[in-house]
Design brief:
The complex is a heterodimer of chains A (about 475) and B (about 350). Chain A is mainly alpha-helical and about 475 residues long. In chain A, about 70% of the residues lie in helices and about 5% in strands. Classes of the chains: A mainly alpha (about 475), B mainly alpha (about 350).
């Protein structure tokens, strides 16, 4: 392959990484804040307590500001497969196209239509029907996540397909296998929990910001309680689910797990490296310094404290005998650290949530200023964890674009020149920076404590229909 | 009809749905800088499409996804070939999406003006680029023997394709004015009526010329006969003429129905002229991509058919219900109420 062609592929990869990571900064907050807003509206509907209505509106506004960018950047993702990865699109279209199309038709349509009804339906629908619209929109967003993860998981662990002899393209043989791909189901639970973590941790942080300024403390105490009720179990559960997801990755993508542990040689039992210096390249396989917990990697990767984990060197030899000469190892350093950043952030978020729950029980949540600052800083944690998670998932699959079937460097668009990809990359970065800044300013403005709500201006929703 | 043909028809249905629905949203966007005279009227125009534009836009997402699933090679060649045009389209799509959610988040007149223009420019740009892009499918683009695009941005511009872009802009502006005629009241309704009357003649004449030109292009560049392309084209001309008559008769409901049908028939004419090909190759006509060459295997199409037959009617049902909920004409007070609701905790 010529140097120019490899530059085009690299640029297209950077572009996909940039736009999809950016897209996923907004999507999980929608996935998580959506049900929380729906719960608050339900609490208002059932109790008639106006505080819940005010909280519904407050967090609902943040949800919508955030949702807009999620929609806008999602369009880019759908176009980008065809624009930059036409060979990939032809190869996978039969299989991968189906969940994408179903996502639009069965899920995104539902979410978009009913969110419109929710935003504008306050004085047009009966309170019960209006409440139903937010729940249906949430259902749409959660269904949407499912179909997207079915598509993505097929790239990680292809099932229910055959390679057509005449065209060399993947053909679907079982839609049931595609939809019940074990990898997809685990990825789905993992991602939806991540969404709930986003929603609850961001909500907790904003509540603590209000406590810090002593603004509307009684109101935001209720929201903080709700956020903690969600955050504590969900962050804990995510540690378990993330671990189980790791087992699925071990069986489908052994190379990814070996790289995420910088495990060069096959081991049994294997210790988990908490931190290490060096040992990230083929020429430098032994770390200069490392802290390792015995047997934990065996447990995480296989579910048994005595399980065997294959090393990079053995896997590389196996891949070469299966697929011919070439380098089948991802960038070990990046994969090792992305795995740790994700996992450590996961643990930190659990600690923040647990600490908050303890303070709440001690009735100190509104007064512990050090905790308010902690929770404010913790707003960044889910964003960092999700980004690291996708870097691990996608870069860990390299050099494959579809595990074992198609390599990334064979998947780009032959008709697209380096200059086109370079200019579109520059275009997206410029546009996304502007969008990000405006979004941040708006979110801050609508989340900040020193904007006193004027209760008397708030019209009661009335049923005219 | 086999499944490949059915899916070609379904893709046409999805594009038709997109332009019928989002078409009037584009029209409302295009008229934003010209029709309303004050903030309350601008709010009313945004309000008229506020609840529905997002659901309407999903028709595009579905059209794209369905093309990917049912005709992977069509999706791959079209999206990679029309690269820079689609990049421009994404710019217009994005600024328009955020304009809806962000405009009312500040009271600063400059902020509001920025997002009003973003919506207007986005709406116009999307209509223009889609007109040019879809017209290129039938007018022909350079494809190599692998079916990959073998040209550059300039190859997409031709008098016919540019004319198609202008047609889409005028047609949707007219369609949007008719929609507003159903949803506005008082002075705004009167001014919308004036806009509809002014747009009616150019939109009808340009639309008719585009439909006839499309027949010529289909015969000339895609090896088609006059029949059956002439059927949707003639129907389109008749429908647009009726739209013109209804506008001057003050019957906005009927005029809107006619421009809705006109949007569908414009899409139908293009795709009838295109069938059985999905992208015409020019100058090497033999490299053209056709339905059977681009289609997915039978199993995928069968699965997708079941999904489409189950979900499409449900989608139509709840989207229709949405229009029923928001059927009332918008008054000045509605816009103010919405304003009051949009702030944090209702401030």
């Amino acid at each position: 392959m010529s140097a120019l062609a490899s530059t085009t592929v690299d640029l297209a990869r950077i572009q996909f990484a940039t736009t999809s990571i950016y897209h996923f900064l907004f999507v999980p907050l929608t996935l998580g804040l959506g049900p929380l807003v729906a719960i608050m509206q339900t609490l208002w509907y059932r109790s008639g307590d106006e505080a819940w209505l005010r909280l519904t509106r407050f967090f609902g506004t943040l949800l919508l500001i955030n949702f807009a960018i999620g929609v806008a950047t999602g369009l880019v993702q759908e176009f980008e497969f065809g624009m930059n990865w036409s060979e990939y699109s032809k190869f996978v279209g039969n299989v991968f196209g189906a969940p994408l199309a179903i996502e639009g038709l069965a899920a995104f349509m539902l979410e978009s239509t009913f969110l419109g009804l929710w935003i504008f339906g306050w004085n047009k629908l009966s309170p019960r029907l209006h409440l139903a619209t937010i729940w249906i929109a949430v259902l749409g967003s959660w269904l949407s996540g499912y179909f997207i993860l079915v598509a993505n998981s097929w790239m990680q662990h292809p099932v229910g397909y055959t390679i057509d002899k005449t065209t060399g393209e993947a053909h679907l043989t079982s839609v049931w296998a595609l939809l019940t791909n074990g990898f997809a189901l685990r990825a789905y639970v993992h991602t939806m929990l991540a969404g709930l973590i986003f929603g609850s941790i961001v909500m907790l942080g904003i509540c603590c910001w209000h406590f810090l300024r002593g603004h509307d403390v009684d109101l935001f105490r209720r929201a903080a309680k709700l956020a903690l009720i969600v955050a504590v179990p969900v962050t804990l559960l995510q540690l378990v689910v993330g671990n189980r997801f790791g087992e699925a990755v071990t069986s489908a993508q052994s190379m990814k797990i070996a790289a995420s542990e910088a495990q060069w040689n096959t081991c049994q039992p294997c210790g988990f490296s908490l931190f290490q210096i060096g040992g990230f390249t083929e020429d430098d396989q032994t770390p200069k310094f490392s802290i390792t917990v015995p047997r934990v990697l065996s447990y995480m990767a296989t579910g048994s404290f005595n399980g065997e984990v294959q090393g990079l060197n053995d896997l590389q030899a196996q891949e070469q005998s299966n697929y011919g000469p070439g380098n089948y190892m991802p960038n070990v350093r990046v994969i090792y650290w992305s795995m740790r950043v994700m996992a450590y952030m996961g643990v930190l978020m659990f600690l923040v949530a647990a600490l908050g729950a303890w303070l709440y029980r001690k009735r100190k949540l509104e007064t512990a200023r050090w905790y308010h600052w902690t929770a404010l800083v913790a707003i960044a944690f889910p964003y960092i964890a999700a980004t690291a998670g996708w870097v691990l998932t996608e870069m860990g699959r390299q050099p494959w674009i579809v595990q074992g079937l198609l390599k990334t460097d064979q998947a780009s668009s032959p008709s697209v020149s380096t200059a086109w990809v370079a200019s579109s990359l520059a275009f997206f970065i410029a546009l996304y920076v502007i969008l990000g800044v405006v979004d941040f300013v708006l979110m801050r403005r609508y989340a900040r404590p020193d904007r006193p709500p004027a209760r008397e201006e708030l019209p009661e929703p009335v049923a005219t229909y | 009809m086999d499944l490949q043909e059915l899916w070609f028809v379904l893709i046409v249905v999805l594009w038709s749905g997109y332009f019928l629905l989002e078409g009037f949203d584009f029209g409302v966007g295009m008229l934003l800088p010209f029709v309303p005279r004050n903030e309350s009227e601008r709010g009313a125009m945004f309000e008229s499409i506020g609840p529905v534009w997002d659901g309407n836009e999903v028709w595009l997402v579905v059209a794209g996804g369905a093309t990917f699933a049912a005709f992977p090679a069509w999706y791959a060649t079209m999206f990679s070939g029309f690269y820079l045009a689609l990049l421009l389209l994404l710019f217009f799509l994005i600024i328009r999406v955020v304009s809806f959610e962000w405009r009312d988040k500040s009271e600063s007149p400059r902020w509001r003006a920025v997002w009003l223009w973003a919506n207007a420019i986005g709406s116009t740009g999307i209509a223009l680029v889609w007109g040019i892009a879809l017209a290129n499918l039938i007018h022909g683009v350079p494809l190599d023997s692998n079916g990959d695009y073998d040209g550059n941005l300039v190859d997409l511009f031709d008098p016919y394709t540019i004319f198609a872009g202008i047609t889409f802009v005028l047609l949707f502006a007219f369609h949007g004015a008719n929609y507003l005629g159903l949803r506005t009241s008082d002075r705004l309704e009167q001014r919308v009526g004036v806009a509809a009357r002014r747009l009616s003649l150019p939109a009808t004449v340009v639309g008719a010329a585009f439909l006839i030109w499309t027949i010529v292009v289909a015969i000339d560049r895609n090896d088609k006969d006059v029949f059956p392309v002439i059927v949707p084209a003639l129907l389109g001309i008749v429908v647009l003429t009726f739209a013109l008559l209804f506008v001057f008769a003050g019957r906005s409901g009927l005029a809107f129905t006619m421009t809705a049908l006109g949007s569908v028939l414009a899409v139908a004419t293009l795709f009838t002229g295109l069938y059985p090909r999905v992208i015409v190759s020019s100058p090497n006509f033999a490299n053209s991509l056709d339905v059977s060459g681009a289609a997915s295997a039978h199993y995928t199409l069968a699965v997708m058919t079941v999904v489409a037959l189950v979900t499409l009617p449900i989608v139509l049902l709840y989207q229709s219900w949405t229009y029923y909920v928001f059927r009332a004409r918008i008054t000045g007070e509605d816009a103010e109420l919405r304003e009051a609701l949009s702030g944090p905790t209702g401030s």
